[in-house]
Amino acid sequence: MFSKALYSTWAYYAPDRVLFDCGEGASTFLENRSFAIRKVFLSHGHADHVAGLTGLINIRNNAMGDREKELQIYFPAGNHLISELITYFSRTNRRLRYHLEWVPLGAGDRVPLVGGRQPRHVEVFPTVHAQGEKSLGYNIVERRQRLREAYRGLPQREIVDLVKAGRRDEISELYDQRLVSYGGDSVPLRPGPIQDTEVLLHEATFLADEDRKEYKHATLEEAIEAAVAARVQRKLICFHISSRYRRELARAQKQVAALELPFSITLVPPGQVCELDI
Ligand SMILES: [Zn+2]
Ligand SMILES: [Zn+2]
User: Fold this and answer.
1) Cα 192 to ligand 1 centre (Å)
2) pTM for the full model?
């Protein structure tokens, strides 16, 4: 991930080959891995989240790699900045070797992923950004199987016997586990759509509340509050941090590490590509 407020934000999730937002420099850093991307999910149309598309679309056409591999770019339906971009790209890239598809999305939509062992999809949720700027957040969701509550106390041997007796469907149930939630640079996320997620990527432009002049973006404190309310299970990753805090980051990281919370907190240093290990 790279994220610096006003300049550029992008995050590549390798297991599902998904890129969240495409700020300036995404393909420059990812180089050949740009060809690994299957789908791009844009949170909104501001320059710091879309300026890298020019490079990515071009590199997939010209660099060494599978130049025929299709690419889908998902975006909030009705976002006028992105509509203008689509017009620009369709006029300036008439002869792409690959199929480039722009797909408008709305809250509640689902996009299937071709993932690992368990079926996965992206779940789309609403976010609130600046006025008139349509924005969305995205969850990567995995469909899993677990024992029904009534059977959870049974010894392993009895469960095996039940499965052998062909009663697997009776004792187990399917459920959806949110793995990763990405909310773009909106105001604090509401807990509902990201409830129980394992990893939350939440914006935290401001480390100090007094630096925020109007109700836009979020503070570090709000990001933590949002994660607590959503009962995040493993990790909160705070990004979109303003570069004015570069020198204070180590101290802030120490302070949040001292909080006793059920999840860890990572601050993405503004101006540095960061491997997140999630
Ligand atoms: Zn923005
Ligand atoms: Zn931004």
Assistant:
1) 22
2) 0.95
Write the CATH number for 189.
3.60.15.10
Query: Per the domain annotation, does 157 fall within a domain?
Result: yes
Give all strands of the β-sheet with 39-41 in edge-to-edge order. 2-4, 8-13, 18-22, 39-41, 71-76, 100-105
> In which band, very low, low, confident or very high, does the pLDDT at 149 lie, cut at 50, 70 and 90?
very high
The ligand placed nearest to the CA atom of residue 81 is 1
User: Residue written as tokens 């300026």?
Assistant: 51
| 108 lies in some domain | yes
Q: What is the number of structural domains in the chain?
A: 1
Ligand in closest contact with the CA of 21: 2
* Ligand positioned closest to the Cα atom of 187: 1
Q: How far is the CA of 148 from the centre of ligand 1 (A)?
A: 43
Span from the CA of 15 to the centroid of ligand 1 (angstroms): 26
Q: What is the dihedral of CA 77, 79, 85, 86, to 10 degrees?
A: 20
Tens-place pLDDT, residues 253-273: 999 999 999 999 999 999 999
Distance of CA 117 from the midpoint of ligand 1 (Å): 35
Give the number of other Cβ atoms within 10 Å of residue 54's Cβ.
17
206 Cα: distance to centroid of ligand 2 (angstroms): 12
SS3 212: coil
